[in-house]
Amino acid sequence: MAEQICWGTSENLLPIVHALDRPPELLMMLERVPNVFLPDDEQELGICLQTYNSSENLEGWERGRIFHDNFELRWEKQDGVFVIVYIGEPTELPMPHTESLSEFETQDETYYLWGERMSADTLKAIGQPEATNLFLELQIPRLLPYPVPDGSGKSRVKISARHYLNSETGDLEFYRFRHLEEVS
């Protein structure tokens, strides 16, 4: 069955989120888009990648996406209105535009995320619980929490994405995130 793309604008994001099937493996990436530079203590709160939490105030974030192997819903607040795009398995959503993606070729790709998993000794040395999934990236520099299982022994995390390619030109037209995977 061909996947679909739906899009539109709305003053309210939540009716569209609530119309989705929300499996337990659902992830969310949320971003703040400030008008000024954030102070150092607020920078780490500017973006988060975590397991979906239904009590999170999604409408309080300027950009976001919730994603799963079967779909992605992304939004961006512009002038007080949410621009919303859904890509994935066919579903009924209260959005004005829907098109099939059957004419596109799909290609699954993975991309490394920033950071390497911190060892138990390093976590202890900096005063963090040993079971914390923190990844360190010195180029940023900051600690990055990723929603992956504890104790896997894997040092890196990749994000899986599905690309939708124009069948005639091979150009990338759309993409969506799918899931995280740990790698050594």
Topology readout:
Blueprint: E1 4-10, H1 14-18, E2 27-31, H2 40-43, E3 47-51, E4 63-68, E5 71-78, E6 81-88, E7 97-100, E8 104-112, E9 116-117, H3 120-125, E10 134-137, E11 142-145, E12 156-166, E13 172-183
Antiparallel strand pairs: 1-6, 1-7, 2-3, 2-4, 4-5, 5-6, 8-12, 9-10, 10-11, 12-13
Describe this structure in words.
Helices cover 8% and strands 46% of the residues. The longest helix is centred in the middle third of the chain and has 6 residues, at 120-125. A hairpin with a 2-residue loop joins β5 and β6. The protein folds into two domains: 4-102, no CATH class; 109-183, no CATH class. The protein is built from three helices and 13 strands; from the N terminus they run βαβαβββββββαββββ. It is globular, with a radius of gyration of 18 Å. The chain starts with a strand and ends with a strand. It has a seven-stranded antiparallel β-sheet with strand order 3-2-4-5-6-1-7, with no helix packed on it. A three-stranded antiparallel β-sheet has the order 8-12-13, with no helix packed on it. It is mainly beta and 184 residues long.
